[in-house]
TrEMBL record:
Native source organism of the sequence: Virgibacillus halodenitrificans
The name this protein goes by in its record: DUF2249 domain-containing protein
One Pfam family matching this protein: DUF2249
Domain DUF2249: 3-68
C-alpha cells in the first residue's frame, strides 16, 4: 500500500500513517510519500517496533518504507 501525504499540513500525514499501520500484519510493508522527512514519525515508529527506510525523491519529497516487525 502507498499513502501520498504530500500537500497535507501536520499532523495529518502522521495521523493517516499511524491509522494505516494499525491494520498491518507482521512482515507487511507500507510506503508513504511526504513533503519532508517525518522526524516525529520516526520516533513513534521506533517506539512501536517498526523498521523504516527513507529514500529522497527527485521532486524533493521523501518516500518512507515502513515494515511491521515481529515481537
Amino acid at each position: 500500500m502507498i499513502i501520498d501525504n504530500r500537500g497535507l499540513e501536520p499532523p495529518q500525514p502522521m495521523i493517516r500513517t499511524l491509522k494505516a499501520l494499525d491494520g498491518m500484519n507482521i512482515g507487511e510493508h507500507l510506503s508513504i510519500i511526504n513533503d519532508r522527512r517525518p522526524m516525529f514519525l520516526y520516533e513513534e515508529l521506533d517506539e512501536r517496533g517498526y523498521s523504516h527506510a527513507t529514500e529522497p525523491l527527485e521532486d524533493g519529497s521523501f518516500k518512507i518504507i515502513i515494515t511491521k516487525s515481529g515481537d
